[in-house]
Design a protein that fits this description.
The structure is a homodimer.
Chain A: H1 8-20, H2 23-29, H3 34-48, E1 53-55, E2 60-62, H4 64-91, E3 96-102, H5 104-121, E4 125-131, H6 134-142, E5 148-151, E6 160-175, H7 204-213, H8 227-235, E7 241-244, E8 256-260, E9 267-275, H9 282-293
Parallel strand pairs in A: 3-4, 3-5
Antiparallel strand pairs in A: 1-2, 5-9, 6-7, 6-8, 6-9
Helix pairs in contact in A: 1-2, 1-3, 1-4, 2-3, 5-9
Chain B binds a DNA duplex through helix 3.
Chain lengths: 299, 299
DNA sequence: CACACTTACGATATTCGTAAGGATT
DNA sequence: AATCCTTACGAATATCGTAAGTGTG
């Protein structure tokens, strides 16, 4: 009853014929022989159940019903073209949106250069970046608010997939004039007895550091929130600290030195979290590809 | 480049699959075998140049691009259906508009019953009726402001076609106590010497009456605009008048009698005027058919 | 008779359904 | 093993182009 089977070819043929008022010329524009074009128009008229053209052998003109249909046909063609082009723009990465959640350590130090390259390549794709702690990163992916995430924990929800992304070595940071600064590699035990400046106990870095140092205990524990504060403390000679390599940019200062920690190396793992039940959009795929290609190497 | 050839079948298949998330069930709804349905979806994906579904063997879901396209596909289908239905409504005379221009004599006396029948049959078709003198009737058709017209003149424009519609006998109207009222048929010559009440010289009725009576001259000529005024004058005994039969309803009064005039009958012809270069809309065709069927017979 | 659309018809392409294949639960 | 989608393939259908037909100026 209400399921006419029309094709864009029919509609385009109709519009061309309405404008050119000549089967011969309209057929040429549609790259069809004139009889085939004639049949196409006939099939359209049959599909919509109305005679759309009055053909005398000498002249072709729209019927009143045809005039009525012309508006709709043009609108439909335009809408269809716009819809398909919009889709194409997304596929071709000329448009779109990608959302990424990442640990602040990654978001501040490593990510900006990646995003700059991404924006240079796909200037019209919107970037939605969240710097969040690992748990919130995972939650954002789970809730669909992020296409994928880089976090320091594995996801345990069934609809989420976790894969290793990179490893992050722990480093000792101390003043250049500190005794430990003389060594190139430092074993964990060497930290014993030194004053430590540390982040708040809730921070994942702190938890990982504590776990790595165990059973060593820290001396003069602090509860700082910001790594830049830690850096200030260390620079002032209040102690040493241990941080993952991705955060070392906070400590780039002439008075400070950084040394890899542990043999074998002490490290934490960063994971890539994504939904397993939903494909990534083209834009997200593109960002993911770039992220993987510019993955930080082991340092 | 920008001419994707989509069909409504593809769009409908796409929407069904997006909703049912099952090739098997969606194929059934589309009355297709499952492999044929699968091919249909594949052809759509190829046409728009994007993968729209993610198929694992166990589950089917839209890709992000597919979600994007779903809105457009649904909108397109709905618009197409509405457009075709609107066209169908016009063809089926459930909707539309017809414009008719007719002489006041026809518009007042004969037309109302015709329109009433038309409206009874096609209650939702808008009627645009103009009562106008013959020249304006023709002009309205020429300008496209009327689909067709009933007038007392032939059209001479090349894009207009004129065909006879009906003939309109002239009648004498006089008081019942007038000497002429005694006769059943009255020759033209019998009018000589009687006082005449007449319309303005510009009226077509007046011109036709004068031509018909020639070389007889009228006595006590008046310049009235309205036939109802003429009727009043005749009733008052100021004279007799001659009018075409279609206007006789103005003179239906107990004191008045009407008599056919002339042997052979004195008559004017009413013509149907329409454009020859443009077809009539379905609504106009329907009204025309009814008008022809209820054509006034010779009286 | 020249032009423009329609009809006729054989050739080509597309689309269909059945049957077999492959992957996942 | 059962389910679901894809691939394979012969058959039915649709569409195409050439050529002949028809009506009009």
């Amino acid at each position: 009853m209400s399921e006419p089977n029309l094709s864009t070819r029919q509609l385009r043929a109709f519009v061309e014929l309405a404008e050119l008022r000549s089967f011969t010329r309209a057929a040429a524009r549609c790259h069809l022989s004139q009889p085939a074009f004639s049949a196409l128009i006939r099939s359209l008229e049959q599909a919509v159940g109305a005679r759309l053209f009055d053909r005398t052998t000498r002249t072709v003109g729209l019927t009143p019903e045809g005039s009525l249909f012309l508006d709709g046909a043009q609108r439909l063609l335009q809408d269809m073209q716009a819809t398909v082009e919009d889709l194409g723009a997304h596929v071709a990465l000329r448009r779109g949106r990608v959302s990424l959640a990442a640990l602040p350590a990654l978001a501040a130090g490593w990510l900006p250069a990646v995003l700059q390259e991404f924006r240079g390549r796909y200037p019209d794709i919107e970037l939605d970046i969240a710097d969040a702690l690992s748990e919130e990163c995972v939650e954002r992916v789970r809730a669909g608010r992020a296409d994928f995430a880089l976090a320091a924990v594995r996801a345990n929800a069934p609809e989420l997939a976790t894969e290793p992304f990179c490893t992050d070595r722990f480093h000792l940071v101390c003043r250049r004039d500190h005794p430990l600064a003389a060594r190139r590699r430092i074993a964990i035990g060497a930290l014993a007895g030194h004053h430590m400046v540390s982040l708040a106990r809730s921070s994942s870095v702190r938890q990982l550091v504590e776990a790595a140092l165990r059973p060593l205990q820290m001396r003069s524990v602090m509860e700082l929130e910001q790594l830049s504060t830690v850096a200030g403390m260390v620079r002032a000679g209040l102690g040493i600290t241990v941080v993952p390599s991705l955060t070392l940019f906070h400590f780039e200062h002439a008075d400070l030195v950084t040394r890899p920690l542990g043999t074998p190396a002490l490290r934490r793992e960063i994971f890539l979290i994504r939904r397993s039940d939903r494909a990534l959009s083209s834009a997200a795929q593109a960002l993911l590809a770039l992220v993987m290609r510019r993955k930080p190497g082991p340092r």
